[in-house]
Specification:
Strand order of the largest sheet: 12-11-10-9-8-7-6-13
CATH superfamily of the largest domain: Aldolase class I
Family: In the 2nd section; belongs to the type-I 3-dehydroquinase family.
Shape: globular
InterPro entries: Aldolase_TIM, Aminoacid_DH-like_N_sf, DHquinase_I, NAD(P)-bd_dom_sf, P-loop_NTPase, SDH_C, Shikimate/glucono_kinase, Shikimate_DH-bd_N
Bound molecules: 1,3,4-trihydroxy-5-OXO-cyclohexanecarboxylic acid
Mean pLDDT: 82
GO molecular function, one term: shikimate 3-dehydrogenase (NADP+) activity
Structural class: alpha/beta
Distance between the termini: 24 Å
Protein name: Type I 3-dehydroquinase-domain-containing protein
Helix content: 25-40%
CATH architecture of the largest domain: Alpha-Beta Barrel
Organism: Zalerion maritima
């Protein structure tokens, strides 16, 4: 991947400037800003803001002395609106069939007036930019206050997507020879603004594609330009914890920073179409991506104390979080995404059987943030409920100003950001619509604004209340972008119509016809029969056949718990631990729901294995059994040592066989057992996972992902065996984790693999997946290494490798070294990633090879990552050698890092559920025993303590 930073990002010179949100910069609301409230004491700060890029519009309307920014902002927006109506935006909405809304009302810069008072004629949605269908190479714009981390995020995006970073401030400097603040001092305000506008016009014209644009300027014309730009390109408002911004700006007290963010939030929201909360990490502050100039200088040569946890984790989490966010708004496949190798990723959650959405309200979250473990364990989605208490949708509250709304929005963004940072589970964003909001236009408008905020934060699923008018619902559904819409109807009264009432089927049909992706219907159970009735309703919907869309339907309340357990898609459940607190118990946890499936024989308790020559020492049983137990799955995972693959035939044909891990030395040999290989296993030429297939396609072929998964956890005759390789996923994860930003894969980067067996093939494949084009194999038996190279060359020449990251035209080359006496090959850069796949302990008669690397191969100036796959000893000669090079930037990973990383995808394949990653990582460290049977807990403690820092 190339990082072409055309304009390297300096300290962004603009002030802690401001900007807004779509709906909350709503014209109607501009009129009700608390003019006197707020930041009257902030004279100097506001002066600063005004003189460093907030623009003439503010200056022009500045009263003799600026007293409140909201006042100034209100005037700015009003006047700006008069001068320039945003016809583009209006057209947009026309396209979205909202003609019946007066055009003028769609312009957030227009003043509130009687004529445009939406309460008089029903609710009008406030301005929501188009979110659908960006071009894959559409430039991304990052806006937000100084200190929000835009520049670091720009570098992350540009590196991953092979784009340029374009910094507005830098371009300005290049054009004028002066920084914008210097230019401002030296020129008249109009002239300065004119130059800024020119610079910005050039940027947007020249970099409409293939760039990441960073901008902090806010003045009327640039805002207008960005607003137009957001019709075709994502414009992302970057938010951050007030404390982090405060630290960065180093000037403001708590109240002022809050006020600053409130006002700026509103402004940025008025022209951006997305919002990203850049969560601050605390565990390793020096690695927090806060250097606004985007340089990675403090990572260069960052050292790892021997045997300390791997560094860079904080940045990796930020990187994963931001790339995940981008993947939710850009077209599929645009973002090379780390998750993409996991089997469940290819199946939408609503297509899987018995999935759970753990629910948490914003009010609860504000009061007591639940641990991610209590939410994540056993769940398939996290549902964030913006409850009426939180949203104030329960009662009209005249006078509620922007401050509170902006604060609440930032809080919602923060909750979503924090979950996204810590879990891969999708987010369901649910605004609890109240009776009052169905009739009160201003509340309805607030509801719409809150729902559209879900689009801005790129929630994967957003609910809309089916009681609302179809036109209103359509306006949201038509601008859903990549989000999936859940048409939701909860009739909460005890006298709600029974499931046989036509209202349920007609609501289902309404949702389907409007274009919802999923329907969710709930009512309280008052008698046991309700649980049977809801099953009949499911059957009736199922009977619709092809036209049906996924249905979530269950009863609420204590009697309804049965139907929650047996509703097949995204049942709403409570966080773990809540069962103890519930009085009376009116909901279930993931654990209880899963146990119900097994105890009622929907699923069967089954057997899993690890096969290998000597797997008595394997930690896979402890790791998988702990995960199974945490989820309430009663399967057993057992070690089975054998000298010959043929000994396991009876086990893999057992009706209770649920799958197996394959250990050394059978990874290549085991291919003979299987009827079908995954495309990755084929490419690697080795397997480490066996999966039974119990249902074949009508033509006798092996089904693909969905059907393969839907026959999990059910015993019965085995029709075929499927082979997968997850070792490469684990190796890739270890390399990525240990690779510092200074060693990010770029053209010319090289990798070294020691060994030529099944694991070495997985290591080569992992490097190819990372985009490494120059791979050196070192192996004593040269013919084995040559066979490995021939294997990959064949796939490459046929263009048959299922590579997940975007490829460059650079040719892939392999080089074989058969002796450590060999010099490092000329023309190949020193390796920045090394994977050692040779044993570190004695096998049979052969003594442990005391392998170390020749110093002459270790010339990388920025160090790199060494992954040592064996885990019998945590202190191999090679690991010790590399620990001594920690101060040269070398990071080490061992078998204890790898085992869980390759086990996660296996767990998905065995059970059809996401793996509890942190738990599996912890159990591996806790159950480790060395050659002498010692636990080494003291040595592993720092690693255990830092498990939470690792990627979710
Ligand atoms: O190589 C290994 C190690 C292993 O076989 C074990 O013994 O735990 C489990 C396999 O999944 C993995 O590929």
């Amino acid at each position: 991947m190339v990082m072409d930073v055309v304009h390297t990002i300096p300290e962004l010179k603009t002030s802690p400037s401001f900007t807004p949100h779509s709906s909350f910069a709503n014209p109607r609301r501009v009129g009700v800003i608390h003019r006197g409230a707020g930041i009257a004491d902030n004279g100097p700060m506001i002066e600063h803001l005004l003189t460093s890029g907030c623009g003439a519009s503010l200056q022009r309307f500045r009263p003799t002395r600026i007293q409140t920014l909201p006042h100034a902002v209100a005037e700015m927006t009003v006047t700006a609106g008069k001068k320039r109506p945003y016809s583009i935006v209006s057209e947009e909405w026309k396209g979205n069939q909202l003609e019946h809304y007066p055009r003028m009302k769609l312009d957030p810069y227009l003043p509130a007036s009687e004529e445009h008072n939406t309460c008089a004629r029903g609710p009008a949605p406030s301005w929501r930019p188009r979110l659908n269908g960006f071009e894959p190479n559409a430039s991304i714009v990052l806006v937000g206050v100084r200190g929000s981390g835009k520049s670091t995020l720009a570098i992350i995006a540009s590196t991953a997507m092979n784009r340029k970073v374009v910094d507005a401030e830098k371009v300005f400097q290049e054009m004028t020879g002066l920084s914008s603040s210097a230019h401002k001092k030296a020129h008249k305000p109009e002239e300065h603004l004119q130059r800024q506008v020119e610079a910005f016009e050039i940027i947007l014209q020249r970099h409409q594609k293939d760039s990441v644009i960073v901008c902090s300027w806010i003045q009327r014309n640039t805002v207008a330009m960005l607003k137009e730009f957001s019709a075709t390109n994502p414009v992302i408002h970057v938010l951050r914890e007030p404390k982090a911004i405060q630290q960065h700006l180093n000037v403001l007290n708590d109240d002022k920073i809050e006020e600053l963010l409130t006002v700026s939030g509103r402004l940025y929201r008025s022209f951006s179409n997305f919002e990203f909360f850049n969560v601050s990490e605390h565990s390793n502050p020096c690695l927090t991506p806060s250097n606004e100039d985007g340089s990675d200088s403090h990572f260069q040569g960052e050292t790892t104390p021997a045997r300390a946890p791997a560094p860079y984790l904080t940045l990796k989490r930020a990187e994963r979080h931001f790339l995940k966010f981008l993947s939710l708004l850009m077209p599929t496949g645009t973002i090379p995404f780390i998750e993409s190798a996991f089997p469940l990723t290819s199946i939408p959650t609503e297509k899987r059987d018995y999935t759970y959405a753990v629910s948490i309200t914003m009010s609860e979250w504000t009061y007591r943030e639940p641990t991610i473990d209590s939410l994540e364990t056993g769940s398939d989605a996290i549902e964030l409920v913006v409850d009426a208490k939180y949203s104030s949708l329960d009662e009209p509250r005249p006078g509620t100003g922007h401050k509170e709304e902006s604060y609440r929005l930032a809080h919602i963004a923060k909750a979503i950001g924090k979950y996204r940072r810590s879990t891969v589970l999708p987010i369901i964003y649910h605004i609890a619509c109240t009776e009052a909001a169905l009739t009160d236009p201003s509340l309805q408008s607030l509801y719409m604004d809150l729902v559209s905020y879900g689009l801005r934060v790129a929630a994967e699923y957003i609910t809309v209340d089916l009681r609302l008018d179809s036109q209103i619902l359509r306006s949201i559904i038509n601008s859903k972008g990549n989000a999936k819409i859940i048409g939701h109807l909860n009739l909460a009264s005890e006298s709600a119509p029974p499931w046989s009432d036509h209202i349920w089927m007609s609501s289902y049909s309404k949702a389907r016809e409007l274009g919802c992706d999923i329907v969710r219907l709930t009512r309280p159970a008052t008698r046991w029969q309700d649980n049977l009735d809801v099953k009949d309703f499911h059957a009736a919907v199922h009977g619709l056949g092809e036209i049906s869309i996924p249905l979530i339907a269950f009863n609420t309340g204590a009697i309804g718990r049965h139907s929650i357990c047996f509703n097949p898609v995204l049942s709403t459940i409570a966080p773990l631990g809540d069962e103890a607190r519930q009085q009376p118990r009116d909901t279930v946890t993931a654990l209880q729901a899963t146990q119900a499936l097994y105890s009622s024989f929907v699923y069967d308790a089954m057997d899993l294995y690890v096969f290998g020559a000597n797997v008595g020492y394997s930690m896979s049983p402890a790791m998988h059994n702990a995960a199974l137990q945490a989820y309430g799955i009663p399967h057993h995972y057992k070690p089975h040592s054998t000298n010959s693959m043929s000994n396991i035939r009876s086990l893999v044909n057992d009706p209770l066989f649920a799958g197996a891990s394959v250990g050394l030395p059978f990874k290549v040999e085991a291919i003979a057992l299987v009827d079908c290989l995954s495309r990755h296993a084929k490419a690697v030429g080795a397997i480490n996972t066996l999966i039974p297939v119990r249902e074949l396609n009508d033509d006798g072929t092996i089904p693909d992902d969905y059907k393969l998964f839907s026959s999990r956890n059910r015993s019965g005759p085995i029709r075929a065996l499927y082979g997968e390789n997850t070792d490469w996923i684990g190796i890739r994860a270890c390399i990525r984790r240990g690779l510092s930003p200074a060693n990010a894969v770029r053209p010319g980067a090289s990798g070294l693999v020691i060994g030529a067996g099944g694991m070495a093939r997985a290591a080569v494949y992992a490097m190819l997946q990372l985009g490494v084009k120059s791979i050196v194999i070192s192996n004593r038996t040269i013919s084995h290494a040559e066979r490995l190279v021939a294997h990959f060359n064949r796939f490459l020449s046929q263009n048959d490798l299922p590579l997940l990251s975007p490829q460059t035209s650079e040719k892939t080359t392999f080089q074989v070294l058969h002796s450590t006496q060999d010099p490092w090959p000329a023309r190949i850069r020193y390796p920045t990633m090394i994977v050692s796949c040779i044993p570190t302990h004695s096998i049979g008669e052969s003594p442990a090879p005391h392998f170390t690397l020749p110093e002459k191969w270790l010339g990388s100036q920025t160090g790199g990552v060494l992954v040592e796959l064996a885990y019998k000893s945590l202190e191999s000669p090679l690991l010790r050698q590399m620990w001594d090079k920690a101060d040269q930037g070398w990071v080490t990973m061992d078998g204890l890092d790898l085992l869980p990383e390759q086990g996660f995808a296996q767990f998905e394949l065995f059970t059809g559920r996401r793996a509890p990653k942190q738990l599996m990582r912890a159990v591996v460290l806790q159950s480790y025993r060395d050659d002498q049977g010692h636990a080494n807990l003291a040595q592993l403690k720092p690693r255990l303590d830092h498990i939470g820092d690792q990627e979710p």
